[in-house]
Amino acid sequence: MDALAEQSPTPQPRGDKFATNIVHFARTLRTAGLRVGPGQVLRAIEAVEAAGLSKRDDFYWTLHSVFVNRRDQREIFDQAFHVYWRNPRLLEKMMEMLLPQVGVPEQDNRKQLSRRLQDALQPGQGEAPKADENEPPEVEVEATFTVSDREVLQKRDFEQMSQSEIDEAIRAISRLRLPVPERRTRRYRPARRGPRIDFRASLRRALRPEGLIELRKREPRRRPPPLVILCDISGSMARYTRMFLHFMHAITNDRDRVYCFTFGTRLNNVTRALRYRDVDIALAKASSQVEDWSGGTRIGQAIHEFNNKWSRRVLGQGAVVLLITDGLDREGAAGLAEEMERLHKSCARLIWLNPLLRYGGYEPKSQGNKAILPHVDEFRPVHNLESLGGLIAALDFKTHAADRRLAGWQTELRTQLRGE
Amino acid sequence: MSSSKPASIDATVELLKAGDYIADRSLATVLYLALKLGRPLFCEGEAGVGKTEIAKVLAATLKRPLIRLQCYEGLDVSSAVYEWNYSRQMIEIRLAEAQGVSDRRELESNIFDERFLIRRPLLEALQPHTEGAPILLIDELDRTDEPFEAYLLEVLSDFQVTIPELGTIKAAQTPIVIITSNRTREIHDALKRRCFYHWVDYPDLKRELEILKVKAPGASERLSRQVVGFVQELRKLDLFKSPGVAESIDWATALSELNALDLDPKTINDTLGILLKYQDDIQRMQGSEAADILRKVKADIAAQPLG
Fold first, then answer.
1. Structurally, how many domains does chain B consist of?
2. Where are the beta strands (DSSP E) in chain B?
């Protein structure tokens, strides 16, 4: 309160200075990443007027109720509030000092964009080799793909692709459209031969002069279920990671209710980042958020975190989970089986995508694989474009046929467990 | 006769207290603002922290009717807002035919008349009530799907409902709206922006003790202290579902019914099902871990006697 008195000696909320301060505070919050619009500023002024300024605490909670929309914004708000309302001038000065730096990443983006634009206009010339991608120089592939080249590309392992092939594959992924395997919801829509009578439509119809009441029908509306993707980005998956990020981006932008997580040593929710339409911005945002690229794997820990923090928030309404991992766990799969069981029980369908499965003689030998396998509904390879395309069939519940190999492994593992 | 809305934040705290609801200052502030400015209050928080209770207490203390809309997947306009009474409409048509009414326009206005309208909670909340503006509780909004959420936008920003056959119905008095969510999915920002947001947290030790004093008066002071200490420790652990306030109240009540005066590991083991609702959590707590926590709690109490 005393801090406020400094700023506006007479406690008159509507004073110009006061409104300006709220506006500045809102701008501070916006810079800090909160979504604060002008509407909220107006409401904040209105709310402060209503609540009065007699107590600093009340002032805090008044602004809180207007500016904070989600629980995770609380920390930022809290810090901003304490810094700002202690001495607004100080903060303004700090902001001024910070501003040029704040501007930098945007310029950076523009540069990147323009480079991409160049690439698009003159293919082949603007290509600069990137440091982190080791390109095997002996493989030469033509820039334009004939049909048969495409077929080769379909079957080629992501791991063995050259840079240009990877680029082509990424383009193919961005064209990938998952057909919508729909599920019945509890809503209805009018239909010529539905199982239920639509009374409302029938009655409206009855007002026509024909005389007889003609019954109108309705049927359950169908809608794709939510999709949750858990993607392993640890060292052993490094060669695939980029592909999967593109894959996740393509799906996220193709349909609603897709949630994407990455995990290595810790779990990260990258959904919001991947929602950016522009793939470069999306991937840049996602990678700046993730800190454990190509590190170790603690699958058990990651799934545990997902179960505890996220499962109840994203696995509702018949969600399907795609788990992308090779199942190689650094910690000897400690606790993994229990967490997998819980995950399996809280979703409608759990599909495990494992690049290792491409090898003909694959056997679930590692601890991690043994722990995961009993708790999945489906087990598929994911190492080339063809297998990604095959996913489409996997997501379609109707065409799905029982996987004998998976069933065999599962019974084997279960008998082993019982034997122990 | 209804009581008037509280005139200050302090009055709001007192009002809730009169309804046996021990609120912290932050909740009282938000609630006061929501009441004063006539905007919905959006309460989010874990299960069992007293979100729904806010609306009930408010209805009881302000003496307003409580209209509750429990949300579920597939909730649609015909069960949330209004529905036409089809069978009565059919009869009306037959009668009209028998009387030889041939003017179709007249027939239509006869059939789609307010007499045949069945009011569901949202529409009911917009009707005039003699006791004053009602309290509309939209419970567990996260259980519905996005289409219904979008529908709510019109209702919550303008407090009006559009029925194609009748026109737009505006609220007689702005109802007091309280929305709760357990966060089983994120509610869209557009809806949240129209509300005052509040995250209902677990209470701290002092407040939880006060709550138990009011809600579980049978439990002795000593027992309550131990119960609260134990529950507060449990919440620090990484459990799948931490016990809420509702659970501590239940537990304290159950223990006092069992004539327990003092917590001991065996009693805890026997009654753990009241606190924890997941088998893994119970399994983890059974045995030595519960005993360890209890020892710590008792040591804390000994070091810091009541006061």
1. 3
2. 41-44, 66-70, 82-84, 117-119, 135-139, 160-163, 167-170, 176-181, 196-199
A243: Cβ–Cβ under 8 A, 6 or more apart, which residues?
A158, A166, A169, A170, A173
- Is residue B34 located within the same domain as residue B178? yes
Q: Is B163 in contact with B116 (CB distance < 8 Å)?
A: no
| ipTM of the complex as predicted | 0.74
What's the rounded Cα separation, in Å, for the pair B251 and B228? 10
Task: Give the DSSP letter string of A196-224.
Answer: EE-HHHHHHHHTSTT-SPPPPEEEEEEEP
Contact state of B33 with A314 under an 8 Å Cβ cutoff: no
Residues in A closer than 8 angstroms to B189, CB to CB, are 35, 69
Q: Tokens in use for B240? A: 């799948």
Q: What is the CATH number of the domain that holds B139?
A: 3.40.50.300
Question: Smallest Cβ distance to A186: which of B73, B78, B196?
Answer: B73
Q: What is the pLDDT of residue A395?
A: 64
Q: How much is the pLDDT for A90?
A: 55
Q: What is the pLDDT of residue B19?
A: 93
Task: Determine, yes or no, domain membership for B76.
Answer: no
Q: Across the A/B interface, how many CB contacts are shorter than 8 Å?
A: 105
- Whether residue A12 is predicted with pLDDT greater than 60 in this model: the reply is no
Task: Give residues 240 to 299 of A whose Cβ lies within 8 Å of B.
Answer: none
Are residues B294 and B173 part of one domain? no
Over residues A325-330, mean pLDDT: 82
Task: Out of B168, B199, B230, pick the residue that ends a domain.
Answer: B199
Percentage of chain A beyond pLDDT 90 is 8
CA A45-B28-B139 angle, 5° bins: 100
**At which residue do the structure tokens 């991992």 appear?**
A325
Q: Are residues B90 and B238 in the same domain?
A: no
Query: Is residue B181 located within the same domain as residue B210?
Result: no
Q: In chain A, which residues have their Cβ closer than 8 Å to the Cβ of B199?
A: 68, 71, 74
User: Which of helix, strand or coil describes residue A187?
Assistant: strand
Q: Is the residue at B56 inside a domain?
A: yes
**Chain A residues inside the 8 Å CB shell of B73:** 185-186, 316-317
Domain extent, residue B223, equals 205-299
Question: Does any domain span residue B306?
Answer: no
For the cut 50, the answer to whether the pLDDT of residue A132 exceeds it is: no
Q: What is the pLDDT of residue B229?
A: 94
Pairwise CB contact (< 8 Å): A206 & B197: no
* Chain B residue whose CA is closest to A226: B185
Residues B229 and B278 in one domain: yes
CB-closest option in A202, A203, A313 to B183: A313
A213 in helix, strand or coil?
A: coil
B86 in any annotated domain:
yes
Q: Is there a single domain that holds both residue B253 and residue B209?
A: yes
Residues A370, A396 contacting (CB under 8 angstroms): no
pLDDT value at A331 more than 90: no
Domain A227-419, architecture per CATH = 3-Layer(aba) Sandwich (3.40)
Choose from A32-41, A139-148, A173-182, B167-176 the range with maximum mean pLDDT. B167-176
Interface test mutation site (partner A, options B39, B197, B198, B240, max chain A beta carbons within 10 A): B197
**Start-end of CATH 3.40.50.410 domains in chain A:** 227-419
Comparing A118 with A343, the larger pLDDT belongs to A343
**pLDDT band at residue B244 under the 50/70/90 scheme:** very high
Report residue A335 CA to chain centroid gap: 25
